[in-house]
Amino acid sequence: MFLLLNTGMMGVFVALDFFLFYIFWELMLLPMYFLIGIWGGPRREYAAIKFFLYTLLGSIFILLVMIGLYFSSMETLADGTRVFTFNLLELMNHANYTETGILSPLNPNNLRFIAYIGLFIGFAIKIPMFPFHTWLPDAHVEAPTAISVILAGVLLKMGTYGILRISYPVFPELTYQLSWYIALFGMINIIYGALAAMAQKDFKKLIAYSSVSHMGFVMLGMSALNTMGISGAILQMFNHGTITAMLFLIVGVIYDRAHTRDLDSFGGLGKQMPIYTGFVTIAFFAAIGLPGLSGFISEALVFLGGFGNGTTRILTVISTLGILLGAAYMLWTLQRVYLGSLNEKWKDLTDLTTREYFMLVPLTIIVIYLGVNPSPMLNLMNASANAMVKFISDAQGIYSSLNAF
User: Fold this and answer.
1) DSSP β-bridge partners for residue 75
2) Cα-based distances in Å from 277 to 253, 262, 270, 280, 356
């Protein structure tokens, strides 16, 4: 099931055909449903069904938009043959749409706005964006550790990837017009997710809500529609994957030994498990966004990009509260679980095993290396981010002149 899940994820990221993209998008549902529903915690069936229904609802919206775009791309050849396409690169080129197509930008009665919203909701459920986020904490809490890692590290990124890969280039003029609302929901995610995390007693649920908050930074950067913001959003997607993978593995290590995730039942584990606590400290400070660790540079780029766009500036300023709230719930958790006097109940806990070193050391190296030298990652994505910003800007100029005419 895990290998089938990997197949679906890889297929989503490499598909340039909308139909193939959709097939792989749906393929991921089945193995994740069973991985949570069979090997999960006490409420695994509830969490698995909730995850399945939420994601399937989003998939219906994506399917409807895909069909509309397919029939809007009709081209009549010289011999009278009608040709349609699912090719995403063709759908990005609005010159390939027919004037009569239901989702053609040239059709004065088109349904592009409704299609954009439908597609956006389909991807937003996967992010997960407020108010479609409620499946995530349940899925994380009930999933086995390995599945929580892959869910936070890769699956959540498919929502933001889908928006950048499909929604933005296929509907550039609407992206430009609705960027403020994307920033608004990003801000809500950041602050609401952080406040919800602060209220949790379950260690895993706290990390799950912190994921909701950190994915808000991705949305905020995407809404900036400038190279700095979009590069920051893409880098945040990667950094969140590595940092949150560390955090879920950290929870898995302690749950494997103590068989509880109740934050209030621990205390003083730093004395009993000093090496483990060292990894915890790096992961927590990376999640907060401490300079020198990978979380800092992506969040800094997101805020610089958001502030550089006059439309999203006020929302960006409010979103900086997320840094303060993130520090609050992370440091409070560090204090409750790892500092202070050791709870006698845990005096026999052992430090990290070889297998756990094998999981945590590579992630720690990535987090520190990208914190000190993020250039290799940024150089990879800058050309693409520049191209997307120019594409959206040019498209907005063209459609504005058409509307004025």
Assistant:
1) 83
2) 11, 17, 5, 5, 13
Residue with tokens 């992370």: 330
Per DSSP bridges, beta strands 82-83 and 75-76 are antiparallel
Angle in degrees, CA 382, 386, 391, rounded to 5? 150
At a CB cut-off of 8 Å and minimum separation 6, what does 370 contact? 239, 242, 294, 297, 377
Which amino acid, 53?
A: L
CA pair distance 126, 120, nearest whole angstrom:
10
Instruction: Determine contact, residues 309/220, Cβ cutoff 8 Å.
Output: no
Beta pairing partners, 76: 82
Tokens found for residue 28:
């991921």
What does the alpha-carbon distance between residue 272 and residue 56 come to, in Å, rounded to a whole number?
Answer: 45
- Give the burial string for 334-353 (b: 16+ CB within 10 Å, else e): bebbbeeebbeebeebeebe
Residues 6+ apart with CB under 8 A from 359: 249
Cβ-proximal residues to 385 (8 Å cutoff; 6+ apart), any chain: 227, 230, 231, 234
pLDDT tens, 361-396? 999 999 999 999 999 889 988 888 898 888 888 877
Provide the residue count of the chain. Answer: 405
Q: Which residues contact 263 (CB under 8 A, 6 or more apart)?
A: 200, 201, 202, 203, 206, 333, 336, 337
* Structure tokens, 212: 């909701």
Q: What angle do CA 363, 364, 369 make, to 5 degrees?
A: 100
Cβ–Cβ < 8 Å for 306, 221: yes
Q: What is the pLDDT of residues 283-311, one digit of tens each?
A: 999 999 899 898 899 999 999 999 888 78
Q: CA-CA distance, 46 to 33, in Å (whole number)?
A: 10
- Give the C-alpha separation, 216 to 51, whole Å: 20
Cα-based distances in Å from 281 to 138, 150, 285, 338: 26, 22, 6, 10
Distance of CA 61 to the CA centre of its chain: 19
Q: At what angle do helices 18-27 and 44-72 cross, to 10 degrees?
A: 170
The tokens for 90 are 């063709």
